[in-house]
Amino acid sequence: QVQLVESGGGLVQPGGSLRLSCAASGMLFSFVSMGWYRQAPGRQRELVARINSIGNTNYADSMKARFTISRDNAKNTVYLQMNSLKPEDTAVYYCNVWNTEYWGQGTQVTVSS
Questions:
Q1: How far apart are the first and last CA of the chain?
Q2: Distances in Å between the alpha carbon of 71 and those of 19, 27, 41, 45, 104?
Q3: Residues in contact with 104: Cβ distance below 8 Å, sequence separation at least 6, in sequence order
Q4: Contacts by residues 65-72 (CB-CB < 8 Å, ≥ 24 positions apart)
Q5: In angstroms, rounded to a whole number, what is the distance separating the alpha carbons of residues 93 and 36?
Q6: 35, 60, 94, 107: which one has the fewest Cβ atoms less than 10 Å from its Cβ?
Q7: Bridge-partner residues for 38, per DSSP?
Q8: CA-CA distance, 45 to 60, in Å (whole number)?
Q9: 65-78 pLDDT per residue, tens
């Protein structure tokens, strides 16, 4: 079955960086689009970025300049590089097989001094 396992979250100071990873299994990874979402306490889950099978990317406007989504099809992994982190980036980050109900368990990112 499809499994998505996120990692790389943690506590970081404002202005810091983190790289999240999402390892996928149980599907033909190189053929699917993948997305990163996040959900902050008391807020709806929102799209962060998406990458299609050939590497074309889309970002939420507020994160476009600071976040980079990428993928390594040989490793069945999608990444989210997050730079210049702000306290408002604090959330649980999830990866998703685009347009499906396949989600990872999420990884907590906390930006605080």
A1: 40
A2: 12, 15, 28, 22, 16
A3: 4, 5, 6, 22, 94, 95, 96
A4: 69/34, 69/36, 71/34
A5: 7
A6: 60
A7: 46, 93
A8: 12
A9: 999 999 999 999 99
